[in-house]
Every structure is written in C-alpha cells, then in structure tokens.
Amino acid sequence: LRRHEEFYLTGGDLFFLIEQNHFRVHRYFFERESQWFKLQLATPASPGATRQGTSESTAIVLDNVKAASFAKFLWIFYNPKYSLYKARVDDWVAIMELAHRWGFHEVMKLATREIEKLEMPDIDRIVAYHKFEIDRSLLLHRYAALTAREEPLTLEEGMALGMDTTLKIFRAREVARATPAADGSRSPTSASLPAEEMQSLILDLF
C-alpha cells in the first residue's frame, strides 16, 4: 500500500483505499455534494468500533474505480486555478462517470458545461450523454448531423449507440431522404430537409 502522491492531504479527515493507493481528503466535499456519500458517512459504526474512513486502517474501499480516475475527480475540488477548469475530453468523461455514480449533481453540471466547449465525435458524445443521463436537448444537433451525413451508421456505431437510438437515426435518415429537394429530386445519400423541418423531425423522434 502507498499514499497517493497528490491527494494524501495534511488535515484531511476522510480516507479512501483504491488500487493500493491511500487517499486522504476532506469529508466536507463528499457530505456537501453527494447524498449517497452523506448517507454512507452517516452510518454509525458498530459499538466500540472506529468509524469507517477516519484512518488508513479504516479507509473506505472503493471497488470498480481506478485510482487515476478518482484523482481526476478530486481535482475538481482541489483545482489550484480557482474557476479555470482545463482538461481533456477523456478526463471529463472519467469525472462524469464517478459524479453520476455517486450523485454529485453540481460536478455533473460543471463537467457538462466544460465538455460542451470541446470537440468530441458525435457518436462518443451521444453514448456518454445517454449513459450519464445528461439533458438530451444538448444532443439535438448531434442527432441531426448523423441524420444528414452521407454515410449510414456502421455496425460498430450502431452497437455503441444501442438499438433504440440506432433505429431512430435510421428512421430519421429515411424520412429526410424521402423528402424531395426544392427541384423535386430525391437522393438516397443526401438529406434534403430544410433546417427547420430537420429540427422538427429530430424533436419528434428523440
């Protein structure tokens, strides 16, 4: 076992153990932000036992969590640059996953705002937003882009999106290509819907 090089903090009063790494952080953030953790930390210890998470020997073990991902998550609370949060898309997705799992709603809002500023493939964004139950209205133009692009979804893309979303996109593509262009022509590869009609189609389906 070893102490995490960045997040074993003097004065921390909450201990976690993840992948042989001890983390020492402040209980305040977890009780303030997450109802799940608030309930976990409020559970009284058995008579005569030391409360869980108060020392290395009683550290809370978090299963199915990578130490690197947990460190990225903690960075939200201990970011030294105040309100400036600069991270890669992959980092924000890792943060979202833990925030969603433990009910850190404000962290989810922050991660969503930041990831909206970054470039991310449409398929990857849709998959992530669905998985973490993010407002689907943010995806309307992503659905529209997949509807309008010439290439149909690949097998791999369809498997990633899931059957429900894949069928809706195929339906949208079918409708968009069945609508005649201004000159009366139809194209099996190009969507000819005006922007307003495309938006209406996507709203109806999604």
TrEMBL record:
Q: Report the domain of life of the source organism.
A: Eukaryota
Tell me which SUPFAM superfamilies the record gives: POZ domain
Q: Which PROSITE patterns match?
A: BTB
Domain BTB residue range list:
12-86
Pfam families per record: BTB (PF00651)
Q: What is this protein called?
A: BTB domain-containing protein
